[in-house]
Amino acid sequence: MPSVSAGYAPDLDKLIKSLKGQPLDASVESLLSLLKRRQIKGSEPCAIATAHILLQVVARSKWQDVDVLIDNVSQVGRRLVKAQPTELAIGNIVRRVLGLIRDANKSIVVAAKDGDGAIAALRDYKVSSAIYGLEWGKQ
């Protein structure tokens, strides 16, 4: 009977551990490969992997504008859904992340009718006091 050895069989745990050491593109490609080969299967592992990779997209991708961030997250999300179209959890997590991004930035837009109104809106602008302490893997 063949022995069970700990050879290289990438899975969710190895993917999560490797995210910090890899460039963003390599991390996305690694997850796409695992999804296509069905080495990550089931709703919960797919959702966790999707959330981790989208966290990396938000943290590491270059964006100056919220619209660019939304485009980056949407593009990666489309690629993930295309890699595993039968896993609905992937699309759900992507939509939730996009919703969080949009909700967090909804209050930034202020309508002003003239220059004085714009100056008053900028003067009264307060930075959110919310702190997001996202620490994945400690759930």
Describe this structure in words.
With 139 residues, this protein is mostly helical. Helices cover 61% and strands 0% of the residues. It contains 6 helices and no strands. The chain has helices at 12-18, 24-36, 43-60, 66-83, 88-106, 115-124. The longest helix has 19 residues, at 88-106.
State the gist of this model.
61% of the residues lie in helices and 0% in strands. With 139 residues, the protein is mostly helical. Mean pLDDT is 80; it is low at 1-7.
- Profile the largest sheet: none
Rg (CA only): 19 Å
Number of helices: 6
Uncertain residue segments:
1-7
User: Quick one: how many beta strands?
Assistant: 0
Written as H for each helix and E for each strand, in order along the chain, the element string is: HHHHHH
Shape: elongated
Output the structural class.
mainly alpha
Q: What is the arithmetic mean of pLDDT?
A: 80
Strand content: under 5%
Helix content: 55-70%
Distance between the termini: 38 Å
List descriptors.
about 140 residues; mainly alpha; disordered N terminus
Write the topology of this structure.
Elements: H1 12-18, H2 24-36, H3 43-60, H4 66-83, H5 88-106, H6 115-124
